[in-house]
Design brief:
This protein is mostly helical and 435 residues long. Helices cover 25% and strands 2% of the residues.
């Protein structure tokens, strides 16, 4: 009866024909390409349904169940999706401009390339949702939970993200220019090559965040917590770091900073390229002690600060990655220390792991090229097994996958891996990455 009603004689204006569907069970139904403009499906069960390319403009889907449904290329402009269940829904390239998703559940939903301009996402649950290359300009996000969300290359300009929860989010290449993120939690967030010019980050939690290559021109980081953050190759021209906590913050070569700024920030505990890590032998020997090395393999990168023995906090994993990526660190070490024993530790480690005739993948160092070769041995990995393989190369799994996926984005605009357990590989991307 449902299908007969949906595809009756009045299909051009189904809102007149469809009646009494509020709260109905329509799960697994195929409505792809249908004209359902202004339809009232409040509280209806449309889970696991096919709504691809469906016209749902101004439709009322409040409190409806659309979990695991496919709405790719659907037109949802000005639709009411308040408190709607959209968990694991496919909204690829969907048009959600000016739609209301107040308190909607979008956990693990795919909104890549979607247009959400002007949408209302206040208090929405967006944890681990995929907004890759999505347009989120002028979106209302107050009270929304964006922790663990993929916002790589998303447009987030002129937004109010003050006090937002964005911890562990992926913001690689995202545009957050002129956005207010004051007081937001961005701890552990990846902001590599993000555009943050004139962004307000006052008093925000940026601890352990990765700003490598980011544009921070004229951004305001007054009073922010930047402990153990990585700002190497970031443009800090006219950036306000007044009263920011920069103990253990890596500022690379201090791009855009004056000599006076560099001296001031060094005095406040920041680390620069010419003083990386190695303030004294005690710190360095502690980094390379066998017990500590074994311990940090099995812990999240954000927990490393608990192992420090003073007020100075050091991002150990960032240090190891820098050493693997750049041969110049070895020469730097040899100039800082008179003894050769410390440098020999690194040299012996590299000799043990690598062959002289190895072929490298563009954008990857020796260590990650070797790990890419291991990944290529099968198309799906059990997480525990892959963690063991990474540990054999003295790598943390999540960090290694992040480096490889960043390179994959540069090469073909797609990540190599997907999922947490199992971890699946995109064979097309893999073919382009392999040397």
């Amino acid at each position: 009866m449902v299908n007969q009603t949906l595809y009756g004689t009045n299909r051009r204006d189904p809102a007149r024909k469809l009646e009494n569907l509020i709260g109905k069970n329509l799960s697994r139904i195929d409505l792809s390409g249908a004209n359902l403009r202004r339809i009232d499906l409040r509280s209806a069960d449309l889970s696991q349904s096919n709504l691809n390319s469906t016209d749902l403009r101004e439709a009322n889907l409040a409190k409806a169940r659309l979990n695991s449904s496919s709405l790719s290329n659907a037109d949802l402009r000005k639709a009411n999706l308040e408190k709607t269940d959209l968990r694991k829904a496919n909204l690829f390239k969907a048009n959600l401009r000016n739609a209301s998703l107040y308190k909607a559940d979008l956990r693990n939903a795919d909104l890549s390339d979607a247009d959400l301009g002007g949408a209302n996402l206040r208090q929405a649950d967006l944890r681990k949702a995929n907004f890759f290359k999505a347009n989120l300009s002028r979106v209302e996000l107050s009270g929304a939970d964006l922790s663990g969300t993929n916002l790589a290359r998303a447009i987030l300009c002129n937004l109010d993200l003050s006090g937002a929860e964005l911890s562990e989010a992926n913001l690689i290449g995202a545009d957050l220019s002129r956005t207010d993120a004051s007081g937001a939690d961005l701890s552990g967030t990846v902001l590599r090559y993000a555009i943050l010019n004139t962004t307000d980050l006052r008093c925000s939690n940026l601890r352990g965040a990765d700003f490598t290559g980011a544009d921070l021109i004229q951004s305001n980081l007054f009073g922010a917590d930047l402990r153990e953050a990585d700002l190497s190759d970031a443009n800090l021209k006219r950036t306000n770091l007044g009263k920011a906590d920069i103990r253990g913050t890596f500022l690379g070569e201090g791009i855009g900073l004056s000599a006076q700024n560099i001296q001031d920030y060094r005095d406040r505990g920041a680390i620069f390229e010419n003083s990386i890590v190695l303030y004294n032998r005690k710190t360095f020997s502690f980094v390379y002690s066998p017990s500590f090395t074994e311990d940090f393999r099995n812990k999240n990168i954000r927990d490393n600060n608990q192992h420090t023995t003073s007020d100075f906090h050091l991002d150990i994993v960032a240090v190891r990655v820098k050493q693997a990526e750049s041969a110049k660190v070895n020469s730097l070490l040899s100039t800082i220390f008179e003894e050769d024993s410390i440098v020999s530790i690194v040299a012996k480690s590299e000799t043990r792991i690598f062959d002289n005739n190895e072929t490298f993948t563009s954008g990857l160092d020796k260590l990650h090229t070797r790990f890419l070769g291991i990944l290529a041995q099968q198309h799906s990995w059990n997480r525990a097994a892959l963690e063991s393989k990474a540990a054999e190369l003295n790598l943390l799994l999540d960090g290694a996958l992040e480096v490889i996926n960043d390179t994959a984005f540069d090469v073909c605009d797609e990540p190599l891996t997907d999922g947490e357990d199992p971890i699946n590989l995109d064979t097309d991307v893999l073919e382009q990455l392999l040397p």
